[in-house]
Structure formats: C-alpha cells, structure tokens
C-alpha cells in the first residue's frame, strides 16, 4: 500500500494521512493508491502538512507498517528514548521498528 | 571570555526579529516551504525525523555559566528536557516547534548566543582546543584568533553561498585536541625562532565520504595577516570549487584535484593581491579581543597536592583531569558518557548544574569538547573533591575520558533524516559490554557514524564504526587505525559488515586481541600500527 507522511508545520510532529486529516498515529494511515500527488499538493498548499511524501507500507493484523526502518522510527519515535515515543508504556515498542 | 559589543548585540537582535517575521510569513502562508527552508537553515533550524531541530552555535566551544544555564532552560522550556552536545562543540535540540523558534533565538540573544551559520554553505562555527587558556603546552590561547575568525566570517557576503559548507579549527599546541587536520582549514598558532606569533595553515582536510588529511600549505603566516590569508584560501575555493556535484564540492576535493602545490600557488597569488587591499582587521581589534581572554585571577602559592584516599575520586582524577598551566589548578572533564547512556546528551537540570559548578569552581567558564563532553577549565585542586562529589551525585562523574566508553556517536537514524543506521544503540551496547574492561584496555577512541557524512568522526577512531543501509537493513562496517591527533591517520575498513549485535562482538574481539598482543605501554592504536590489519582481521573474522 501507499501511505502519506509529513510533519505538522507548526510543531514539526510526524503525521500520517488518514483519509480526512493528518493523524499522529501510523495505524490510522490509509492506502492512497494513485492519488498521492494530488493529496500532497492540496494539503501542502493549505499548510495542513509540511515536507510530506508517499511511502510504501504493508497492512496486516498488527496494523500499518512502513516498509523502511526510517519511517518506522518516525512512526514510533527514537528507539533510544522509549519515554519520548508514542508508546512510552510499552518497553517492547522498539522491537516493532527492527 | 569574549563579550559582545554593541555591534555584535545589534546584529544578533536584528536577526532574531528578521527571523520572527519570516516565521510569521511562513505560518500565514505568505511564503512556501521552498522559500522558507533556506531562511530557517540560515538560523540553524532543520526539519529532522521527528520534529524541527535547532542547532545553537557555541563559538570555539566556550560558554559562561549564564549561557550554560540558558541552554538548560531552553531544554526544559521549549524542548523535552534535554540537549545534545555535538562533535562540532555545538548543542542541538531535537523537539523544537517552529512557532517557538523566534522566542528561543531571543532567549539566546539575551546571553550573547545565536544559531547563525550553523547550517548552509557558509563558514560554520569555528572550533578549538577545549583546554585553550588552561593547557600548559599551548603557545598562546587560540581563542582570540578563533573569535577574530568568527567576526570576519559572520555574514561575510562573499562567503555566504560557498560551493559547500566550510569548517575551520584553530589550535595553539603541538598536541592536536581539535582534529584540526580534518577540517576545511585547520590553523595552528605557532611561534617562530624569532619569537614571533604566526599561523600554520592546513587546508583541504575533512571526513565525509572522501576523508582526507589536510596538507600544510604555509607553515608561518604572520599573525597580522592571517585573516587575509584565510580570505585568500576561501576565494580560491569559492572561485574553483565544484558547484556541479554536491559530493565533490568540498575544498578537500579542489585541493586534491588541483594538487597541493597548484592550490597553494593560487592562494599565494590571491594573498599577494589582497595584501594591497588592506582587508586585515587592525591589530588593535585583535588586542581588544585578547584582553577579554586574559587569564582569570588565579591564586598563587597553591599546593599541587590532592587527597586521593577516595579510590573512585582518584580514578576520576587520573582519567578525566588534565594538568593546568597554573600551579594548584587543574582542568576537569565532565563525561557525558555514562555506561549505557546516550553520548552527548544532558538533561536541562544537568546543564544548569554544570553552569552553576562553573560559576562556583571554574571562574564562570565551561567548554564543550568535540568528543561531546564538557570541561571546567580552571578548577582549584583544593576544590576538586567537592566538585567531583556533586558531579557523581548527579550522574556526571563517570571516569572514562578517552577510554572505550567515551564514545563519539552522531544522533544516527534515531533522530537524523540523513542517517542510514542507528548509532546510539550501538554505542550503548559497546559501552555496556566493555565497561568492566575499560581501565584495562586504556586509551581507545571509538567513534560511530550513522552515515557516510561522518558526523561521528568514524574515520578518525582508533576503532571506527560506519552504519550503512543494506537493502533496508542496518549494517555496520568496522574500521581500525584512525587517529585525529598530531599523527592524524584515517581508519581502514576491516572487511564485510555486521548487524547490530555482530558489530558489538567484533569490537570485543578486536579489543581482546589487542590485550593479548600489546607490549608494555602500548595503546590500542600503537598495537594496531605495529602488527597491522591482517592480524586484527584474522582475529575478528577468523
């Protein structure tokens, strides 16, 4: 699947396109198929996202998983600071990245 | 240390307001990201993996207590409670909001700091010896010369859009503690036989994808001409540096392709021309700056004795302290490398504490080292035990300077958008694995980069590690034999790479082999140089 990711213009937070708006959670990401360029142009022009791009991902029963480790780290947070990730209570969250 | 004059302060204040307006226009949609990006980068604001990252300049690594406290306050007020000290003696904040950036720059300006020229193809923050003004082996304090370079290079209109970024380092002793020969220009302040001060110029060094050691192109430029000579070096580079290929745009490529002799000839020709233009700042300005770097009011007649009855303290003194030029004083390095910690990170509370300790024990002065540690340069020996007790109680008393746990590591793929692999977890695992053997192993400089850009200085590590992307999986190359001192050398790759756990095993095999082979007094690097790569390779892969 193709999903879209970028950063919030004001805060810089990593965001994912959920079909309606930009979510902080990668599990909300939806397949944009062939519409990536159209959505990116519209959303960036409206300053709802910054520096956005399309990536490959897979979806299974565990959720949406970006294909590349860099985007998995973006999705979770720094693996060396579990307290600063989106899942601070899950000590094994970093395993998902690897 | 240097104090801003009205011109410095006015320039920095004006820049804050200019950037505030640029941020407002971006947030209101008056300019696009393409238009805004070069403006924010000129103010040190990057967009990294998780958020905006602000890189703050620390000129030649020197800070006052008030400046250090402000860095801690910024960590708590605008970031997530910590900062990361870098291999270029700067500090980075990883979780900055764009809308906060102008206020942060205003806070920095209130303590004579900024983030100008911490990005872009310009002359970056000039680095120096962290023991400047304290070391017994220096010819002079190199920092006034670095400060003059700062003033000359800041907003220099001719050098704001160079072919590529440009890094300078200034030292003033034969022992190179600033990796001077691995900079675009390395300057060693020297004294000739007549007792005159001058500058030896080393040009065309660097790490990155094409590491090179800078050759000396002029062993003695009179000190009242060294800015003019720097200008000549930059002019030749600006004229002929490759702008068609980002990967061949650094001055090291130009010097290599032209050859040292031809590059030098062109510099000397330009220098002769520039001497007729009278561009050198008046010596009175250098004298004005030097006056601000006068020695602090050291007490005299102090004892050099230390009570070493506490073995942990004695170990810290032996590992982390350097003899001072002034009897009764010592330069103390605060390691930001606790076992299993993140190299270079410090909490806002720790940063403020170090600032307070500098005020109490080190004449209000601190230094950031390119090895990502902090130095209190002028500590009275009689105060050292009390200082260490406070440091130790706050997680800052690790006794591992220049040992295997004192690892330089770039932020890597945990934070950096350019990285191919994570650096920090590898550093943490090695630090933990070898913590019990660190004293036995002795001096071993281990450096890790998460990509070929080499921010972690892996080429210059006695043991270097380079993270690469191998079909979407992190992989780590091992290098041996690098060194950044007076005998600078570049590390050589041992062979096939390793996964994250494999690289830790490989480092342990290399250190174990060293211990089995070393002769009296040999450091890891000495043993490697004596017996060579094939023997180490056999030990690691055999």
Describe the structure.
The complex is a heterodimer of chains A (98) and B (542). Chain A has 3 helices and 5 strands. Chain A is of the alpha+beta class and 98 residues long. Chain A has one domain. In chain A, strands 3-2-1-4-5 form a 5-stranded antiparallel β-sheet. In chain A, strand 1 and strand 2 form a beta hairpin. The two termini of chain A are 20 Å apart. With 542 residues, chain B is α+β, with helices and mostly antiparallel strands. Chain B folds into 4 domains: 104 residues, Sulfite Reductase Hemoprotein, domain 2 (Alpha-Beta Complex), CATH 3.90.480; 165 residues, 2-Layer Sandwich (Sulfite Reductase Hemoprotein, domain 1), CATH 3.30.413; 83 residues, Alpha-Beta Plaits (2-Layer Sandwich); 134 residues, Sulfite Reductase Hemoprotein, domain 1 (2-Layer Sandwich), CATH 3.30.413.10. Chain B is built from 17 helices and 20 strands. Chain B has a 5-stranded antiparallel β-sheet. In chain B, strand 18 and strand 19 form a beta hairpin. In chain B, helix 1 packs antiparallel against helix 4 and helix 3 packs antiparallel against helix 11. Chain B is globular. The N and C termini of chain B lie far apart (54 Å). The model of chain B has no long low-confidence stretch (mean pLDDT 97). Classes of the chains: A alpha+beta (98), B alpha+beta (542).
């Amino acid at each position: 699947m193709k999903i879209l990711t970028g950063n919030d213009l004001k805060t810089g937070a990593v965001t994912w396109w959920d079909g309606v708006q930009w979510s902080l959670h990668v599990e909300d990401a939806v397949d944009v198929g062939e519409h990536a360029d159209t959505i990116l142009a519209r959303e960036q022009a409206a300053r709802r996202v910054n520096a956005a791009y399309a990536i490959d991902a897979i979806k299974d029963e565990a959720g949406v998983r970006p294909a590349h480790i860099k985007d998995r780290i973006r999705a979770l947070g720094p693996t060396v600071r579990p307290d600063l990730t989106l899942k601070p209570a899950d000590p094994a969250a970093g395993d998902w990245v690897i | 240390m240097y104090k801003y004059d009205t011109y410095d302060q006015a320039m920095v204040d004006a820049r804050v307001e200019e950037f505030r307006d640029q941020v407002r226009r971006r947030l209101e949609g008056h300019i696009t990201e393409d238009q805004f990006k070069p403006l924010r980068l000129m103010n040190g604001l990057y967009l990294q993996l998780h958020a905006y990252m602000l890189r703050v300049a620390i000129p030649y690594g020197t800070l006052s207590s008030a400046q250090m406290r402000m860095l801690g306050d910024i960590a708590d007020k605008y970031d997530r409670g910590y900062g990361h000290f870098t291999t270029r003696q700067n500090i980075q904040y990883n979780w900055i909001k764009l809308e906060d950036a102008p206020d942060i720059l205003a806070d920095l300006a209130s303590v004579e700091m900024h983030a100008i020229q911490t990005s872009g193809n310009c002359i970056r923050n000039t680095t120096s010896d962290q023991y400047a003004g304290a070391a017994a082996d220096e010819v002079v304090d190199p920092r006034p010369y670095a400060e003059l370079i700062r003033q000359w290079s800041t907003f220099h209109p001719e050098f704001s859009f160079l072919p590529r970024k440009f890094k300078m380092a200034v030292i003033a002793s034969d022992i190179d503690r600033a990796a001077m020969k691995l900079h675009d220009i390395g300057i060693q302040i020297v004294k000739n036989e007549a007792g005159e001060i001058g500058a030896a110029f080393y040009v065309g060094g660097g790490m990155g994808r094409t590491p090179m050691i800078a050759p000396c192109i002029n062993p003695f430029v009179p000190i009242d001409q060294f800015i003019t000579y720097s200008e000549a070096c930059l002019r030749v580079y600006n004229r002929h540096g490759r702008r068609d290929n980002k990967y061949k745009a650094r001055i090291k490529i130009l010097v290599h392709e032209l050859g040292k002799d031809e590059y030098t000839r062109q510099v000397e020709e330009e220098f002769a021309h520039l001497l007729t233009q009278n561009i050198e700042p008046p010596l009175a300005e250098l004298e004005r700056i030097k006056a601000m770097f006068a020695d602090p009011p050291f007490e005299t007649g102090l004892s050099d004795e230390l009570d070493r009855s506490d073995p942990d303290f004695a170990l810290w003194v032996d590992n982390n302290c350097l003899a001072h030029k002034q009897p009764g004083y010592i330069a103390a390095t605060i390691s930001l490398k606790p076992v299993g910690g993140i190299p270079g990170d410090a909490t806002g509370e720790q940063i403020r504490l170090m600032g307070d300790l500098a005020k109490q024990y080190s004449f209000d002065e601190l230094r950031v080292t390119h090895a990502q540690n902090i130095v209190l340069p002028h500590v009275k020996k009689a105060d050292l035990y009390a200082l260490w007790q406070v440091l130790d109680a706050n997680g800052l008393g690790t006794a591992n300077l220049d040992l295997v746990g004192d690892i330089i590591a770039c932020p890597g793929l945990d934070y950096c958008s350019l990285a191919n692999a994570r650096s920090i977890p590898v550093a943490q695992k090695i630090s933990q694995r070898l913590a019990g053997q660190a004293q036995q192993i002795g001096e071993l400089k281990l450096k890790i980069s998460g990509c070929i850009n080499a921010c972690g200085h892996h080429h210059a590590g006695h043991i270097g590690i380079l993270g690469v992307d191998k079909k979407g999986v992190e992989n780590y190359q091992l290098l041996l034999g690098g060194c950044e001192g007076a005998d600078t050398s570049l590390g050589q790759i041992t062979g096939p790479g390793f996964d994250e756990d494999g690289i830790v095993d490989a480092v342990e095999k290399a250190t174990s082999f060293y211990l089995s082979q070393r002769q009296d007094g040999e450091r890891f690097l000495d043993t490697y140089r004596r017996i060579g790569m094939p023997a180490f390779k056999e030990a690691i892969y055999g």
